[in-house]
Amino acid sequence: EAMDYAALAEAAAEKLELYRRDPSGWRGCRRTGEVAVSCRASAEFAGNVYRGEGIVAASPQAVWECIKPVAGGLRTKWDENVKDFEVVEAVSDTISVCRTTTPSAFMRIISPREFVDVVLIKQYEDGTMLSAATNVEHPLCPAHPNFVRGFNYPCGCFCIPLPGEPDRTQLLTFFQTDLGGYLPQTVVDSFFPASIAGFYSNLSKAVKALKV
Q1: CA-CA distance, 142 to 138, in Å (whole number)?
Q2: HEC readout, the chain
Q3: What is the pLDDT along the chain (212 residues), one digit of tens a residue?
Q4: Cβ distance 127 to 60 under 8 Å?
Q5: CATH 1.10.10.10 fits 5-211, yes or no
Q6: What pTM value is reported for the model?
Q7: CB 153 within 8 A of CB 135
Q8: Residue 164 main-chain phi, psi, to 5 deg
Q9: Cβ(180)–Cβ(149) under 8 Å?
Q10: Which residue in 23, 3, 181, 1 sits closest to 102, CA to CA?
């Protein structure tokens, strides 16, 4: 039975649009100069969905160039939580099945992970770009003995232009990940807010480097 990757990707994008529009229930869990992180219980699995919101000092094009989920993209260079990213199958021009591996993290308490997701890219009329993803299975990606298989539930990034401010971009991110394995909940609950803060910090540095 083949998975309907396109339908799963569209459903993930719709979930993210709902998260974006629904302000209720989020509670702040971390704030830095670059991002406000909040979370609430996930309706998808027994963990949290995390929301990151910040302004990046670069054009939407530059920010998108750094985060877009493409083979050979910049994400593996600046995002310390992405070791390798490969496109397993191009489903359409805007939808692909991808495999991401992550290095060990949190002082090696979290061992390397792998994630297999269907990823959708969408552009809105106002210039907002969305990258949305959710976990899938794929015949070319059986479980790998060197990695713990983790599962992303609807997650992604909105790259939102700010009217009249061409060199600033609102970046709204949603992370909703079951890391798998046997991790204490306290580790998971500490890891994500710190990881999201690091994501915004490293992205800010990456877009500066891109402008030079």
Answers
A1: 7
A2: CCCCHHHHHHHHHHHHHHHHHCCCCCEEEEECCCCEEEEEECCCCCCEEEEEEEEECCCHHHHHHHHCCCCCCCHHHHCCCCCEEEEEEECCCCEEEEEEEECCECCCCECCEEEEEEEEEEECCCCCEEEEEEECCCCCCCCCCCCEECEECCEEEEEEEECCEEEEEEEEEEECEECCCCCCHHHHHHHHHHHHHHHHHHHHHHHHHHHC
A3: 568 999 999 999 999 999 999 989 999 999 999 999 999 999 999 999 999 999 999 999 999 999 999 999 999 999 999 999 999 999 999 999 999 999 999 888 999 999 999 999 999 999 999 999 999 999 999 999 999 999 999 999 999 999 999 999 999 999 999 999 999 989 999 999 999 999 999 999 999 998 65
A4: yes
A5: no
A6: 0.96
A7: yes
A8: 80, 0
A9: yes
A10: 181
Single-letter code of the amino acid located at 9: A
Only one residue has tokens 């998108």, namely: 64
Q: Kind of pairing, strands 36-41 and 48-56?
A: antiparallel
What's CA 204's distance to the chain center, in Å? 16
Distance between terminal CA atoms of the chain? 49
Q: Which two tokens stand for residue 25?
A: 């229930």
Of 84, 80, 78, 54, which is closest to residue 66 (Cα–Cα)?
A: 78
> Domain ranges in the chain?
5-211
Amino acid identity for residue 189 in this structure: D
Nearest residue to 132 (alpha-carbon basis) of 208, 18, 53, 3: 18
Token representation of residue 21 = 């529009």
Here the tokens at position 104 are: 């060990």
